[in-house]
Coiled-coil-helix-coiled-coil-helix domain-containing protein 7 (Oryctolagus cuniculus), 85 residues
Amino acid sequence: MPLVTRRLRDPDVNPCLLESDASTRCMDENNYDKERCSSYFLKYKNCRRFWNSVMVQRRQNGVKPPMPTAAERAEILGAMGKLPY
């Protein structure tokens, strides 16, 4: 597996792995009819937007690494009580 693909499949690097997989699965099941999968695309887009804002905030505060690890993300989402996206 190429390095780029491995990085995208790594839960520590890609916070929206579940949303990405769900949208891909939807496209496969619906013969690539984008209209039927628009809700999955919207969830993925909102997920990326949320984690990007977290990353920007952490970078501004000088926190390293800018993207929280998978364990830290689970803790953040647990503190929120539900998915913000």
Notes: The chain has one domain: 3-80.
